[in-house]
Amino acid sequence: MKAALDWLTRNHERIVHGLADLVAIPSISTDGEHHAEIDRTATLTATQMRDAGLHNVDVFRVGHSLPYAYGEWLEAPGKPTVFLYAHHDVQPTNYAEQWQSDPWKLTRRNGRLFGRGSADDKGAISALLGAIAAYRKTSNQLPVNIKMLVEGEEEVGSKNLLKFFEVHRDRIKSDVIVVCDTENIEIGIPSITYSLRGIVAVQVDVTSARIPVHSGMGGGGLPDAAIALNTILGRLYWGNAPLPVDGLYDQVRKLTDVERQAFRKLPFDGAKFRNDIGMVPTARFATEQGLNEYEQTWRRPSLTVIAQEASSIKGASNQVLPKATALLSCRIVPDQEPETVLAQLTAFLTKDPPWGVEVKVTPHGPPVKWWMTDPNGPAFEAALGAMRTGFDHDPVAIGCGGSIGFVGPLSELFGGAPALLMGIEDPASNAHAPNESLHEGDFKKLMNSLVRLFDNLGKLTPAGVR
Ligand code: BES
Ligand code: MN
Q1: What's the pLDDT band for 94 if we cut at 50, 70, 90?
Q2: Which ligand is the nearest neighbour of the Cα of 196?
Q3: Which residue's CA is the nearest one to ligand 1's atom 14?
Q4: Pairing state between β 371-372 and 302-309
Q5: How do residues 270-287 score in pLDDT, each as one tens digit?
Q6: CATH topology identical between 2-196+370-465 and 198-252+301-363
Q7: What's 2-196+370-465's CATH class?
Q8: Structural domain boundaries of the chain?
Q9: In a mutational test of the pocket of ligand 1, which residue from 28, 154, 368 has the highest number of ligand atoms less than 8 Å from its CB?
Q10: Mean pLDDT (whole number) for 346-361
């Protein structure tokens, strides 16, 4: 292991170059216009997998999916098999004028590496491959068996991933899962994520007429679809109280006292957060009365209008609009059932429509499941120990307000294999936003921790990881 750690130090620039090569390709999955680039990051990831010393490397697809890069190393008989996950697709670069350097050119500034995908999630590909190469280029042997999958459609909801798992079930079967797509609570504080929220999203269509009408004729006499929609959405305003949707909290799992105490001990700097996102001075936080920020975003449901359309400002004219549409996204938490939440939202949105307009609620995409595990047992001990030494800081167990829908189903497919969620983002990473970046110090510490994690897991038997 010592040799592997030294290799990481000596080869850091080489690893960063590999990351720069990945970042240089705009593998945006959200607009459907960059499939050629996603093919290229899949191929490049496969090449980097081979260079790192993985075997049987290939690019796979299931049906019309975007490409998955897959590689393995299975020469440690009797040792646990570790499934590694990251994704090579990225978010678009909207708000382009706010980027301080080319999003597709990895740029070092103030101890960080800037570029779209540097943190979410190409940095994780490089970190995992760095840890693998560290062993393969020194002792040649890894302490565990590896099966590594790098997905190309995570940012569009991993539409085919469960299918991929089903098709390749025997090939990918592993004893423990390591998902590298989450964040550390703060720079320098290694964090293991033990809960994720899920998503139920709906499209709300409001219709008042078949065609728009000159507002000089109909204005005042006709129901305005945009106002009707926004009246309905306005009923959701929660101030600092729970969301006003009937029954929404009935299934929400209560925080244990131990969890509450642990959450309260975690660092949170509200003033800094405000400043980082440029929250306007007059705006207040919308947190429920009496709740800690983490309890709110990790373990309470939330509602967000992620899009709204009635007519465009460019080309607007004096018309009473007959149709208005919104996408409403609900993050769900343990133990909410997606079907129940869908029914609750539908009932809320369709009740008593203004002027009796027509309101149609349809699911927007398949629901994403929440996930939660008990962060104890040999695999977690192995990870916590590795991170403690790798970061030279006590690790913390955290929740996550975001979603990674496959974690639960994959763990089940492997008969309840433990899932270790450890990532490379931090609160200043600006994932999905302009000036995304990776903290280079934490990047090194994560690779160091992964080398130690493989070593720790190698001391366990395949059955002994749970
Ligand atoms: N890396 C994120 C998940 C995440 C979010 C980790 C916040 C840490 C903090 C992941 O890439 C992501 O954005 N997931 C989507 C899933 C959706 C498309 C189903 C999400 O949470 O919106
Ligand atoms: Mn991600």
Answers
A1: confident
A2: 1
A3: 403
A4: unpaired
A5: 999 999 889 999 999 999
A6: no
A7: alpha beta
A8: 2-196+370-465, 198-252+301-363
A9: 154
A10: 98
